[in-house]
Each structure stands twice: as structure tokens, then as C-alpha cells.
Amino acid sequence: MGFHMRLTPIAAALCLAGASLSTPAAARNEKAWDDASTVSRDALVVVALGLPAIKGDWAGDLQAGGSILAAGLASYGLKEAFPEWRPDHSDRKSFPSGHTSVAFAAAASLQNRYGWQVGIPAQIVAAFTGFSRVQARKHHWYDVVAGAAIGETAGFLITSKRNASVRVLPWGDTKGAGVTLGMRF
Fold it and tell me: Which residues form the Phosphatidic acid phosphatase type 2/haloperoxidase domain (predicted)?
């Protein structure tokens, strides 16, 4: 059985998870939308870390973890640097959406590492996470767009295609930041 055929059940599970969370019964109020966004984000993180582990792809696992961590840290830093009231006025940590950045980092990592067969369903679930954050009145639409951009950037910069000969790795410390390119011959 080919690699893509084995991933089909995983892609189907991601689609079903997203679809089950979007039912009217599950989304009658803001709390339900908030819960749905957390479940969808967490499901993507589990798949992004679990799939490489199941396949023995430890480099992919490390890269997915790095992508998710980078997106989360970037979001947290921006929340502290640019305090903005949430639509529900619960606190001043609206910009950007951390749930969305982590969800999109996981989805982009899956797509970049394993292809569109896993990536497209993961991206749909990540988009549902962002949509849910707006419906829960935890974020404005632009918070979600910024979170998605952060996540996609982290996922595609840090995660390489499986068996890729070129790797791009962003780095940073207290004195600067940059990008390192690595090549395998």
C-alpha cells in the first residue's frame, strides 16, 4: 500500500473531527465555540506530533514541535507587546490569536512534511479553529488572520519536506536573528 493510501484514514479523521465540531448543536453559544476551538487546536497538535512519532520520523516530530513552539512564543510576545481588548472584554490579549497560530503551525507542518493529502484536511481544521475564535468573541477577524500568518510561516519555515535535500531554519537570540540554510548532498 502506498504512502498516500495509508494517510487517507488520517486525512478522513481530521475532516470528521472538524465537521463534528461545526454542528449547530455544538455551537449554540460562545462557550461552545470556545471549547470547539480548543479541541480543534489540540487535535491538530496531537496529529502533528503523533503522526511523525508513529512513522518513526523523529526529525519530523522535532520540526513539528519547533513550529508549534515558535508560533506559540511569537503569539505570546505579540500579545504582550500590543495589548488589545478581546471582543468579549475579558482581557487585553486579543492580538494575535494564539489558538489560531498554533493550529496553523501544526497544519502547515503536516502539509509541508506529508503533502496535500494530510495538509488540506489539517488546514480546514485550522481554519475552523480561527473561525471558532471569532464566534466565541475571543478575537477580531484580524487577530485570527495574523495568527494564521504566524502559524503558516512557522510551519513552512521550520518543517522540511520528508527527505528534502535543502533545509531552512530560522534562528534568534538576544542579539539578533537570521535564517540558516542547510544542504544535503
Answer: 59-159
- All three cell numbers of 35, joined, read 471549547
Q: Could you give the count of Cα atoms lying within 13 Å of 22 in the half-sphere of its Cβ? A: 15
Domain ranges of the chain: 3-183
C-alpha span between 44 and 37 (Å, rounded): 11
Q: What is the pLDDT of residue 26?
A: 47
pLDDT for position 183:
59
Q: Can you give the pTM of this predicted structure? A: 0.76
Q: What is the mean pLDDT of each run of 10 residues along the chain (185 residues)?
A: 54 59 59 92 96 92 96 96 94 96 97 92 96 95 97 93 61 68 59
CA distance 70 to 118: 21
Task: Name the helix (H) or strand (E) containing 167.
Answer: strand 166-173
Q: Give the whole-angstrom CA distance, residue 136 versus residue 152.
A: 22
**Residue environment code for 139-164, b if the CB has 16+ CB neighbours within 10 A, otherwise e:** bbeebbebbbebbbbbbbbbbbebee
Length of the chain measured in residues: 185
Grid cell, residue 72, equals 506559540
In contact, 155 and 111? CB cutoff 8 Å = yes
